[in-house]
Structure formats: structure tokens, C-alpha cells
Amino acid sequence: MQAIARTEVEDFLFAEAELLDEWRLPEWLELFTDDAIYYVPATDLAVDASPDNNLFYVADDRFRLSERVKRLMKRTAHAEFPHSRTRHLVSNVRIRKQIGDELEVSSAFITYRTKDGVTDTYFGSNRYRLLPGNGTFRIKEKRCLLDSEGLRGQGRVSIIL
Amino acid sequence: MNAFQRMNTALMVDESKKIFKVSRQAFVDPEILEAERTRIFDKCWLYLGHSSELAKPGDFVTRQVGGRNILFARDGKGNLKAMLNTCPHRGAQVCREKHGSAKSFQCFYHGWVFGLDGKLRSQPGETSYAEDFKERSTSNMQQVPRFESYRDFNFICFDKGVEDLSDYLGPVKEYLDVICDQAETGMTIVGGTQEYSMRANWKLLTENSIDGYHALTTHATYLDYLKSATGALAQVAFEGSARDLGKGHAVLEYKAPWGRPVAQWIPSWGEEGKRELSRLYDGLLARFGKERADRIATFNRNLFIFPNLVINDIMAVTVRTYYPAAPDFMNISAWALAPREETEWARKYRLFNFLEFLGPGGFATPDDVEALEQCQRGFRNSAEAQWNDISKGMGKANPSYDDELQMRAFWSNWNEHVFRVPA
């Protein structure tokens, strides 16, 4: 398989961030494979901990992720109605490994969320498993590792990080 | 004389007219918070942690309880210790890690070394100290004034004269028994702590944790989710009752239509789940008989232990405690509790269930956070719009789970503490 340039991965992650910031969540969901997972572990766990035997903040399979998207697009998702304004900044993108078709990618992130005159900052790293194809990628796994001590400042993860 | 001293209650109560109102001042006034610190958090039993968090000798956690830094450790003999995490020498926090395992604790400032039980073992320059220095109790890390436990739930109190924990809990114990009896070999805290916060007064979370009335509106999207997740509901009507357990404690007990990994099956758990749950149910039946087995397996409990511990035995079991940092800010810690002997299947579904609803990334808790923060915003109008109403179901012989008896139980006891004239 042809080597993949970091810039291709960056373009993809920047586009993902844009979809999130524009609240185009149904389109964002399409980036994920049918068996994809999206995890935000509790911050006192090992980075590779499993949600089968540890308490996470978010551990979505593809079905629950699609329900999360549906929920966030409703007026009755009170935590995000009216929608917060967000800005997902993606940086320090690295291709860690390529095994067969699959790419392991890491990035650093800072996400700002503003609502009702209050701004929250989320920061940490994302670990992706990506499948290349048709000049783009699909996400098989997105594991979002918060660097903060829990959510002491932010209080909730009502947006997608 | 300040505003707080001029008041002698924050409540407006008239049983005959079924009026129960709470002054919004109670949620915003810094002097009220100060009174809560000295008259509630310094006087009541407070939850410290669960014995399972310290499995082996040397295991420890550090946490904030009632405004203090506490070191909770299992010593070499296997005994649990609750110590004030401050060096007797010059005051520095001795243990600076959140959790771990240790052979001893060393204060890095001057190098004093303490045993797992807090006793001073050695200090640099020992010969410069009095000969009996190490034998003095004042040379050791200080134990918390009171430390007792019930069924592996460990509590501390900063008031030496407080009644025994067993008396304090009273009828709460029976509910803790029902929750703990779902396990044959004891309950355990599952790895991973949810630490979050809300820009709201801590008492709002007390109310919200035992408020059955808000579910249909606040959690509309969660109920949508259950409907859309085919087979996520059991054929059970949503009904139940509320009880005042005295001393501010209260409970809701009700049948709920979601799956319970104790032994209430839902179709989406498939045949494997059915086999597993029927095995669990048979175990309960053999140990407790049908009535209690049904209660353990199919009923939900939202248990509130005054002043700030909530154990929700619902689609999973959550243990949650919270403290005010300011009148309009609280810090919350939450854990998942599960039977120690649970199979991988049951543990996985329990946690899956937990995250569907609970926690700051779930489909429900963020909306609770929003609701409570909006209440706190509303209280900015408290000079003119002065009162909260919690009279729902007043005077009813059998208050329903969605009445507000449980909140009145909390507030009456809160009022006793905060406005009691010191003896």
C-alpha cells in the first residue's frame, strides 16, 4: 500500500473539526465505519482501558453514536439548546503506525465551548484508527483522552470532542 | 447583625394550606454557605469511600471531604485508616497522588516518613529531637475524629460527639442492605471516577437526585433513545412511592421500564443475557425468597443520605457525592458500584447502561446540569422572585415517586441544622 502523507490525514481531521463546529453532525457521523467506536475515558484510567470493565464518560458503539447525533440535533437536548458555539483546534498530528489497511493517528486538541456567556476549554489528545480509501478516510475508532483532572471546570461533555 | 442572622428560617410552611416554600436566598447567600460549612459539613457523617477501592494493604486514595484533604489508606494489618492529609511538622500535604499503593508515606518538605497507619517512623536529624519525640501522638499524622462504616461504605465525621453512624443512618441501612444484597460476595467500585462540576448550588443536586417529577420533560431525549433502541424497554409500568427516612434522608422506590443487570431482562440483551439474568434471579430467590428477590431485582431506588450522598440503584448503581465550592458552584464525584462476582457479560452491560443515562457524557445528566445551572441563573432574580415551591403531593397518605415529599424531608432537616440556635 502506498505511504500516506501526514498532510492528507491533517486535511481529514481539519474537515472533521469543521463539521463539528458547524453542527453538521449527521454528516460528521458519516465519517465513521459501521462498527466504529467513540470513547472518552475517565481521566484516572490507563489510556488503553476498556469500557467493559471501567467507568468512562462516553463509550459509544456506532448505534449509540448515531443516537447521540440524533439527540444533539433536537430542541429537547436541553444541554445543547440553543447550540453552544464551539471551536475544535487540531494540532500535533502524527501517523503512529500503519498496519495493513489501518492507520493509527494521534493529534492534540483544544476545544472551546461558549454558551450563555461562559466559555469552557477542553484539551487533550485524540487517538484515531483510520481506514484510507477513495482519497479520504473513515474512522474506525476515536478515543478522546482528556488531559484535565476530570471535568472539574467544564462540568459536562455535552458536545462532541 | 447580618441578613442571615436576622432570619430564623429559609422555609415558609403551612401544612393546612399545603404550602412548602424555600427561600431562594438559601441558594445564593455566602453567609448561608458559611453556616452550612460549620453546621452541616462539620457536624454530619460524610461519605469518604468504599472499602473495595483499597483492595490490598498499602492501597490509598486521597480526596476532599467536607473541605479537608483526607488520606484514606489500608494499613499493613489490613485496617482502613482515614487521616488528615497534612504533616504534623509544618503542615504540607503528605500524600500528593490521587491513588496508588505505598509502603509508607513521606512528606517531601523535610523528609518525615509515616507508616500506612500515619505513625511517624523516621525523620532526618532525629538526634536533634527530644528522646520521646516519636512516642508522642502529636508526632503522627492525625486521624479523622470519627470514622465508621456500614457494609463497606466508609464515612467520616469532624465532630467527635456525633451519634454512631448506625444510628445516624437508621432506616437507610435497610435500603443499603437491599442494594448490597444483589451481590453474594460483596459490592465493588468499578475502575474510573467521574469528576465533574456544576455552576449551581449544591442543594440543587440533592433535590434533582431524588426528583421523580422532572424525568419526562428534562430527559425527553433519553426516553426517545430507549424507544429507538429496539427492545430496550421491559413491559413494566412506571410507578412507585417516596419515603422520608428521617434526619433528612429520603428514598424513592419504583418499578421502572428499563433493563437492570441485577435481574430485569430487556429484549435487546438477547438470549445470553436472558440466561445470565435468570441465573442471577435464581440465586436471589434461593438466598432471599420471592418477595425480596423481586424487590432487589426489579425495583429501582434513588437513595439520598443527608447531606450529600446519593446512591441510585437504577439501570446501574451510581454512588455520587458533591460539595459546594461557592454558593453557585459545586464539585461532584461519582463512581459505579457493581457485584464483585459479576460475569463479564453483566459488567459490560451494566456499564453500557450506566453511560446511556448517567454521568456528564450520558444522555441525561448533561440536561440535569443545564437545568440546575438555569435555576441558579433564575435565582439572580431572588430579590423580587423570592420563593421555590416544593408542595407537590403534600398531605397525600402515599406520596408518589414523582411527588416532592423527599425534598421536603431534606429541607426540613437542612433548616434544623442551619438555623438551630447553638446550645
Polypeptide structure, described:
- The complex is a heterodimer of chains A (161) and B (423).
- Chain A has helices at residues 6-21, 25-29, 62-72; strands at residues 32-41, 56-61, 85-99, 102-115, 118-133, 136-146.
- The longest helix of chain A is centred in the first third of the chain and has 16 residues, at 6-21.
- The relative contact order of chain A is 0.22.
- With 161 residues, chain A is α+β, with helices and mostly antiparallel strands.
- In chain A, a hairpin with a 2-residue loop joins strand 5 (118-133) and strand 6 (136-146).
- Chain A has 3 helices and 6 strands; from the N terminus they run H-H-E-E-H-E-E-E-E.
- Chain B is 29% helix and 26% strand.
- Chain B is built from 11 helices and 21 strands.
- Chain B has helices at 3-6, 30-41, 165-169, 172-180, 202-209, 215-218, 220-228, 270-298, 344-357, 365-378, 405-419; strands at 11-14, 19-23, 46-50, 59-65, 68-74, 80-84, 99-101, 105-106, 113-114, 120-122, 146-150, 153-157, 187-189, 194-198, 239-244, 250-255, 299-305, 309-313, 317-326, 329-339, 387-389.
- In chain B, a hairpin with a 5-residue loop joins strand 9 and strand 10 (120-122).
- The longest helix of chain B is centred in the C-terminal third of the chain and has 29 residues, at 270-298.
- Chain B is globular, with a radius of gyration of 23 Å.
- The mean pLDDT of chain B is 93.
- Classes of the chains: A alpha+beta (161), B alpha+beta (423).
- At the A-B interface, strand 2 and helix 3 of A face strand 14, helix 7, strand 20, helix 9 and helix 10 of B.
